[in-house]
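>> received
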Amino acid sequence: MLAALLLGTAAVVTHVLLGGDLPSISVATETVTELDGHEAGNESLPAAAPDAPVHGQELPTTADISGNRVTGSIGGPPRRTAPGDARAFETPRAPEPEPTPALPRYVPPIPEPSDPDPTERVLPPASLSWLKSTQAGEGYWDTDNPSSEGADPYRVFVTAMAMQAFLSHGSDHKSGEFRATLRMAVLHLRKLQRPNGMFVKAGDPLPVMQHAAATAAMCEAYGISGDVVLKALCDKAVQGLLQMRNPIGAWGNVAHETELAAQSDIEPNMLATGWALLALQMAETVGLKFQSESRTTALQDAGRWAYDRRRSDHTSFSRLPETGTGFDHARISDAAFVLAVLHGKTCEREDLFVQGCLARLAVVPAWDTGTNDFIAWWFTSKALRAGAPKTEQEWLKGVGDLIAANQHGYRAEDRGTTIEEDTNHGSWDHADVWGSTLGRAYTTAMATLLLQAPASIYPVLGDD
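>> returned
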């Protein structure tokens, strides 16, 4: 065959030299199968992954034998580009950073009846199950002594705190284990809200405290769910709260324009001002864009008022519910003062007054149903978070041990009893000075909130 090919080639050359035309030649292209199973031809081959470059190695940038240019950067494979392509000198784009995942909600546990160490707890949703079972069909919670003449006067407050207990557990009115419970509560507060944004009506006791608690609950529900329907309700509620301020810049037990209000009710006090500041803080945390001038003025005025009160060593706690004399006025005053001056930027946390308040607040109270004040403890957790967050964690652990040891079904005297035998399983008795007025739903909601306080979305202003 080789001899024939050589003779054929010689004949063609001789023919051309004698002046003949070059004959057309048809070349048959054979398909060659590579070892890796791919076929070599005109189609593109699958891109092979090059060896990963060694850290510090220079990538090639000279032209290869085909005239293409090799480009690349450390950390990624080189990229070939066609000759003359402007991208030949282009540095490959760095990969987009992955979004930071949301932190999971931390739920502090509650001891099992047989657990000898109350510091190693596992939280069953016993308290929330009890609250769910006691919710009214219309979505609210009442005190233990509802009025026979119309709605319970503290219904708004108890409902708001129960809502916050469920929200702190991770549910909202659109998702989660307790979404149906929260949806009913949200719809109830929505029904109560008046055109001026208020959730309370004339004659309700402690209206600033009740409206502020409801505002905070609705804002938190909006922040977790992103439900735009709630945003309009929250905007109105915040504006209503700002309208309740006293002309000197803080909040009293009633709105300052209320007719026939006693002077002691109009005068600002730390209790009402503290609740209002917590509600504004929650509104800001979830991203509500109310007028910055109004917000700044409100916080600054409240901070200046609180600082002046502290300097004069005079704090008004007028017209608290007449349920006893055990209210922890000093703790409420210290906590509200810290919230007011830090959020109002009246002074820094290094201020001697602030440091003194934080030192007193850091002391874990003893358990005494005659002097326990869950509202004061709630204020304390928020004030410590604003001024000394590491201290807050230690304080919450100490308070959590006290609270968990006194929950129905988990007390020493409850061992051996069943849920069916204890209709109050998971709840707390009237364990504080507000309990006889606000009821078991209040104490259970507040105790649950304090146990789950690390999951709160209230912001931290600094750290130790």
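>> The chain has one domain: 126-455.
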